[in-house]
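Repro case for the chain-ordering regression, as requested:
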Amino acid sequence: MKNSENYPLPDVAALLDSALAIKIQNQLDNKTKPIGSLGRLENLAFRIGLILGTEKPELLQPQMIICAADHGLAAEGISAYPGDVTWQMVENFLAGGAAVSVLSKQNNIALNVVDCGVRHDFATRPGLFIRKVAKGTANALHGPAMSNEDCQHALINGMNIVRELPGNAILIGEMGIGNSSSAAMLLSRLTDNDISSCTGSGTGVFGNDLKKKTEILEKVLEKHKDATEPLGSLAALGGLEIATLVGAVIQAASERRVIVVDGFIASSAILVASKMRPSVLDYCIFSHRSDEKGHSLMLNEMGAEPILDLKLRLGEGSGAALAWPLLMSACAILREMASFDTAGVSRDDDNQ
Amino acid sequence: MKNSENYPLPDVAALLDSALAIKIQNQLDNKTKPIGSLGRLENLAFRIGLILGTEKPELLQPQMIICAADHGLAAEGISAYPGDVTWQMVENFLAGGAAVSVLSKQNNIALNVVDCGVRHDFATRPGLFIRKVAKGTANALHGPAMSNEDCQHALINGMNIVRELPGNAILIGEMGIGNSSSAAMLLSRLTDNDISSCTGSGTGVFGNDLKKKTEILEKVLEKHKDATEPLGSLAALGGLEIATLVGAVIQAASERRVIVVDGFIASSAILVASKMRPSVLDYCIFSHRSDEKGHSLMLNEMGAEPILDLKLRLGEGSGAALAWPLLMSACAILREMASFDTAGVSRDDDNQ
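-- result from build under test --
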C-alpha cells in the first residue's frame, strides 16, 4: 500500500497541445462579440476543446456516475441522518425522485448508480451497477476503513465502469451517510490543513454536534497518523464510493473524457486522484462551490475555480447536473457562433 | 412628461400570496434532501412558483426579446465600435450567428428581435418586429435623446409586443452601440450615484477613452439636470431600446410573467420600470452579475442577487439565455422531486 504504483492505474497525459490552443483561442477571438466578453464561458469552451482535442467540441452521451457506499464511522453519530438513508436514496435515484434524477432527466444525462459498498441487497435493474466490495467500510476509529485489497478492488471497479460507458464526458456524484467525514479527513491529511478548517455540517450537523464530529475526526486521523500516502490515506479514512470515483476519474482522464465534478465529496476523489496523477486536474470542470465548509479550501488547494455558486450542499451529483447546460453552451459557442468575417459585422478596430 | 401617470401603464400587483408561499415552502422542505440543501435553486423555485401562482410551476414558450436601437450620442466617440454594428448585429441575431442566437436555440427559447430605432432599413422577416420610433435617438449632449412623444411611443410598442407573444416568461436583451452610456446615466440620475462609479468600459473603452466617456456623460447629465423623474430621465438620456424594454417588462409583470433580466443595460430598463411600478422587481430573475462596472451597484440599488457570475460583458440577452436552464431546473425540482413520504426515505429526525 505504500506505493501507489502497485495499482494498474493508466497514465494521464497533460493537456499541452499549444497548436490547438492557439487555434481555439483565435476562433473565440473572431466570434461576433468583443474579445473576451463571454468571460468564463470562453475559458470553459477553451478547456473542453483542449480535452476533446478539437476546436469544434461536441459533448456526447454524458454519463452521471453516482457512487454509493456506507461508512462504519457513521456509528459514531457523525451524521444527522440514519445510515439506512444511503440505500433508500439509491432506490430514490433509480426511481427518479431525487434531485439528481430530475436534473439528469432534464438535461439528457444518463444516470448510473453504483453500489460500491452499501449495507443493503439491491435487486438488479437497468442503471444500477452492483460493484459491492464490502457491506460498508469498517469503523475507522478502530482500524482502517478498508483493507488495501478492498481499496484496490474499488479503484478497479471505478476504472471498469468508465470503460463500459459510452460518451466523452462523465459527471460524478456520490451518496453515503457519513462521507463528508471521509472527505474532510482526506483534505486534512493530503493538504496539511487542520481538521477543524476542513470539517463542516454535512447534511445537517451543527453546534455541539459539529464540535463532536470534529473531535472524532481528529481521533481517527491520529489513529491513522502513519497513513500519509494518497491511497494509504484513502484506505484508512474511507470510503468505498470515494475509492471507486478515484478509479473512475483516472480512467476517464486517461481516455480524454471531460470530468464534471460535483461538490465536497466528489472533489475529495479528485484530490486523491490528483495526488497520483496530477494531470487529472486538466480534465476536470468543477461545477460549483458548495456551501459545505472545507470545499472552498479544497478547491483552492487544487487551483480550481468552479462555475456556479448557488450555496448547494446536497451532493449526489446535483450540482454537476445543474452546471451541465453551461458546458453545452460553451461548446455551442465554439461550434455555431459566426465570425466577424462570415457575418459581415465590423470590428472595433474598423472604427479607428 | 413630468407625470408618468399620463402613460397608460398597467398596474403591477405585488406578490403577496402568503397561503401559496407557505404551500411552496412546505413542498420544498418535504423533498428528499436536507432542508435548504439546494441553496439558491430553492429560492428560485419559490420565486417562480409565486409569480406563476402555483406550487407546480412550469415555464412555457419562453420569449427572448432583444430590443435594438441607435444612439445619437455615439457620435461623441463613447463606444469602441462603429454605429453600423447595431444593424449588423440585428442581421446576425436573425441569421443565427450571435451568441444569443446560439444559446436561445440550445435552450428552446424563441428569439424576437425588435427594431426600436435602428438607423437602417430592414427587410421584414419572421422573428423581426419593426417598431422603429425614429432612426436612432438625437445626440443627448445637445438636447433630449428623444421627445416625450417618442418615449411614450416606444413604451407602448414594448407593451404591445409582450401582449402579442405567447408563454409565461420573457427574457430581455438589447443591442445598441452607445447604450452602456444611457444605462450609466440612468443609474446615476435615478439613484444619486456619481457618474464615475456608474460608467464602465462597455464593449471596450479603456484608459483615457473611458475618462473621456465619463466626462461626456457628466456633461450630458448636467445638460439635463432638470430631468429627474423616471420617464423624463429616460427621454432625456435615451435610448429607444431601453424605453421599449421598460414598456415590455411592465406589461409582462402585469400579466404575471417571469422576467429574466440580462446584464447592465437590460437591468437599467428594470431600474426605470421599478421607479414607476416598484412591484415589477417581484417578477424579475436577474440572470447574472456583469463584468461591466456599474452593474453590481445597479443590482444593489434594486436589492437583486443574480444567479450567475461568469464575468460576461456582452449583453444582447446572452446571460439571460445562459441562466435559463437553471430556471427550468428550479421548476423541475418543485414539480418532479419525491417527498420523504412518497419515496420511503428516512428523515434526519428519525435518527433521534
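Ordering looks correct now. Confidence is low (pLDDT under 50) at residues 1-5 of chain B.
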